Amino acid sequence: KTLKRVFEYGSLYLRFCFFIDGLDEYEGDSTEIAEYLQDLALSHGIKLYGSSRPWSAFARAFGDTDFRLKVGDLIKDDM
Known about the structure:
By secondary structure, the protein is an alpha+beta fold. It has one domain (2-73). The protein has helices at residues 2-10, 30-41, 56-62, 71-75; strands at 16-20, 46-50. The protein has a two-stranded parallel sheet. The longest helix is centred in the middle third of the chain and has 12 residues, at 30-41. The radius of gyration is 14 Å and the shape is globular. The chain starts with a helix and ends with a helix.
């Protein structure tokens, strides 16, 4: 809650960009963190980039977007 409040008040003057790797390694509820990040991404002045294995919680939260990259598809010819 505190982090979101900082972004809400600071977003009038500040912009934030976060790169979050290993979302699937989060030890808590994956649905909970996916929903939190989804809400946070809707805040003005915030951009989030995350990486994860294709877990269902993340696919439900972020899967229906044109902004998703499947890294395995991009590098399969190099393997």
